[in-house]
Amino acid sequence: MTADTLAAPRTPKARKSGPNLEKWGWIYMRASGVLLIVLIFGHLFVNLMLDDGIHGIDFAFVAGKFATPFWQWWDVLMLWLALIHGANGMRTIVNDYVHGARTRTVLVWALWLAAGFLILLGTLVVFTFDPCLGIENSTTDWLIEMCAAQ
């Protein structure tokens, strides 16, 4: 092929050796999307449809959920999948629309750092949640009794 001709439309480009990260990113987006649908609708059903619905959501409801390992892992899995899914989607948009290589690199690094920080912070909140912290300012009787019993 000479410099004046174009490659055929479906001619594959030569690819570097090693793992195909774009393919794995594409697969992750599909798999995490399906899992997120199940996790999010389960979360919404439990929070909005059971018992008192939206009127039952208060500090006690959240404290009760975070006292159970099942709901801790449910929320952490939802957090991790959603943040990685969103960061990967934003990475795709940056790669499509940002033309400068240096700017693209800075933005992608910023995306992954922000996602990593939020994942770390959210995971710490879920697993270290203690409803008895700050009890001295509470006016909720059940909380005062529960924390006094510990």
UniProtKB/TrEMBL annotation:
Subcellular location: Membrane
Record-linked InterPro entries: SQR/QFR_C/D (IPR034804), SuccDH_FuR_B_TM-su (IPR000701)
Annotated TM spans: 27-50, 70-94, 106-129
Any Pfam family: Sdh_cyt
Source taxon at top rank: Bacteria
Keywords: Heme, Iron, Membrane, Metal-binding, Transmembrane, Transmembrane helix
Keyword Iron annotated: yes
Predominant location: membrane
GO molecular function terms listed in the Swiss-Prot or TrEMBL record: metal ion binding
GO cellular component: membrane
Entry protein name: Succinate dehydrogenase hydrophobic membrane anchor subunit
